[in-house]
Design a protein that fits this description.
Keywords: Ubl conjugation pathway. Pfam families: NPH3. Pathway: Protein modification; protein ubiquitination. This is NPH3 domain-containing protein. There is one protein chain. By secondary structure, this protein is an all-alpha fold. Helices cover 59% and strands 0% of the residues. The protein is built from 25 helices and no strands. The longest helix is centred in the C-terminal third of the chain and has 35 residues, at 480-514. It is elongated, with a radius of gyration of 38 Å. The protein starts with a helix and ends with a helix.
Length: 530
């Protein structure tokens, strides 16, 4: 070993435990020594910084531009042994790192960029401290209403607004909360995720965080590869999943969904997104639901996706879903069913799954669903009688309006069994109505009948409640002649419906007798519509 090598080892080994272990027993060896570090942090630049520290007797110019590089080199070379006169490199970097709270905004960004370029593991203390410092600055800045920062290194990290005018626009105010978006676009998705988690722990505004994530995604997508796009959007979804969804508009989630349509993101992230959308389905619009089917599916729209949304919405349970929300979703789904009904490729099973996914109590009326079924049967003329009956099982005939029942009774696209059921249901409602009306005859002789009924407290039974319910429909205000004429018309209609029902029953009986297979078919009808 030459004298220069010997001196090099003497200098290096007193500061580095790694060198001491490698060459501690080589002081008397002959020949040249050679060591190669393939994974030295920062490469030649980091190694040079470490050598300067050793040859300068344990002193180095450590500043924000090289602090993280020096820290990584010190950890890699195990430069942590106490020295007699000076601190070791690890101690000096730790002392500088503790002063990070006094750095300017630009110095923090420079240090973070260097940290990212060194591929420091996400558990690194340096990364966490740097990101925590950034979040702390942003929290203070949002409380102090800062003006946008500048990129000058000698400027303060925050400037306070001198504008105290009460007429300041909301747009300007919001821009003062988002001035840092552009500054942090250099971060990788991994560091953005760490940053957002720190923001959430510090109770930063979730709406601002969401805006930043969308801004980041849009900016990065312009130059990203398909694989990089998947990683970015998965990070955006995962971070939104940890937020308070009441602060994230439903429109934002559907915007993220449309971005993912052409990407093969992970199943876990996709499930999270669908769960978030499903929990806010009552805020969605019909346009939101009209998502094209994935490649290879013949349907015009992605029906399976909407079924998964519904499943996520209903999974919340009655304790979290109000009746108003349930009715909103039912109305929305009825509109969606009407929109997809003309699709000639839509299978009966999918149509029926959508029609029956909503609980019966969520619909006050089945008229919209009936019209959608009518449209579906008009397009799908090839359906068998059994398939048509299955579709009609999604109807609650008791909740059809008289107009819809009348239309159904004359609709040849619907099975005869469904027509009879609709007429029987309407007939039953009319009979119940007429049975209630005569009980009011003692009150019809006087315009004050309503007040007289209210005075008789002993007659507050179910029948009297029905009287009050239907009285609003027949205008009992002044003229009894109008009421009589109206009742006569109702009675005539009941008789006509009874005649029609008898005819339908006779026709059904004839069909049963005339067809050899009619016996088994007649038995199957109650089962299909039970």
């Amino acid at each position: 070993m030459c004298s220069s090598d010997s001196m090099f080892l003497t200098v290096i080994t007193q500061y580095s435990n790694k060198f001491a272990r490698l060459f501690g027993k080589s002081s008397g060896a002959t020949g040249k020594l050679k060591v190669i570090f393939h994974d030295f942090p920062g490469g030649a630049e980091g190694f040079e910084l470490m050598l300067k520290f050793c040859y300068n007797n344990g002193t180095a110019d450590i500043n924000p531009s090289n602090l993280f590089l020096a820290r990584c080199a010190a950890e890699y070379m195990e430069m942590k042994e106490p020295m007699a006169d000076v601190s070791n490199l690890l101690e000096q970097t730790e002392k500088s790192l503790q002063e990070i709270s006094y750095w300017t905004w630009s110095d923090i960004l420079i240090g973070l960029k260097q940290c990212q370029s060194l591929l420091v593991p996400d558990s690194s203390v340096m990364v966490e401290r740097c990101l925590d410092t950034i979040v702390g600055r942003l929290v203070l800045a949002s409380e102090a209403s800062p003006c946008p920062s500048t990129s000058s290194t000698d400027s303060s990290w925050v400037r306070y607004s001198c504008d105290s005018k009460s007429t300041e626009s909301v747009k300007t105010s919001f821009s003062r909360l988002t001035w840092w978006f552009e500054d942090l676009l250099f971060l990788s998705p991994l560091l953005v995720a760490m940053l957002v988690k720190s923001m959430l722990s510090r109770k930063m505004d979730h709406l601002v965080i969401s805006k930043f994530l969308l801004y980041y995604q849009k900016a990065k997508f312009s130059t990203a590869t398909t694989h990089e796009k998947c990683k970015i959007i998965e990070m955006v979804i995962d971070m939104h999943y940890d937020m308070d969804l009441s602060c994230v508009p439903c429109k934002t989630l559907f915007g993220i969904l449309r971005v993912t349509l052409g990407l093969n993101i992970s199943k876990c992230s996709r499930n999270k997104l669908e769960t978030m959308i499903g929990s806010q389905l009552d805020q969605a619009t019909l346009d939101n639901l009209l998502v094209p089917s994935p490649h290879g599916i013949s349907y015009l729209y992605d029906v399976n996706l909407i079924l998964r949304f519904l499943k996520a919405f209903l999974r919340r349970g009655n304790s979290l879903v109000t009746p108003i929300q349930m009715r909103k979703v039912a109305s929305l789904i009825d509109l969606y069913i009407a929109e997809i009904a003309p699709d000639p490729c839509l299978k009966t099973s999918k149509f029926l799954a959508l029609a029956t996914a909503i609980p019966d109590s969520a619909r006050d009326s089945y008229d919209e669903l009936y019209h959608a079924m009518d449209m579906y049967l008009e397009v799908h003329t090839q359906l068998s009688q059994e398939e048509r009956l299955k579709i009609c099982c999604g109807l609650n005939f008791e909740k059809l309006s008289p107009q819809a029942c009348l239309h159904l009774s004359q609709n040849k696209k619907f099975p005869s069994k469904s027509t009879v059921q609709a007429l029987i249901s309407q007939q039953s409602k009319l009979k119940n109505l007429l049975h209630v009306i005569p009980s009011t005859s003692s009150y019809n002789d006087s315009p004050c009948s309503s007040s007289g009924a209210a005075a008789q407290k002993g007659k507050k039974d179910k029948t009297s409640e029905q009287v009050v319910l239907y009285s609003g429909n027949f205008d009992l205000s002044t003229d009894n002649e109008k009421l009589k004429a109206h009742l006569q018309g109702m009675q005539w209609r009941v008789m006509e419906l009874e005649k029609f029902c008898r005819k339908m029953q006779i026709q059904m009986a004839k069909i049963t007798k005339s067809k050899a297979s009619g016996h088994s078919y007649a038995k199957s009808l109650p089962k299909l519509c039970s």
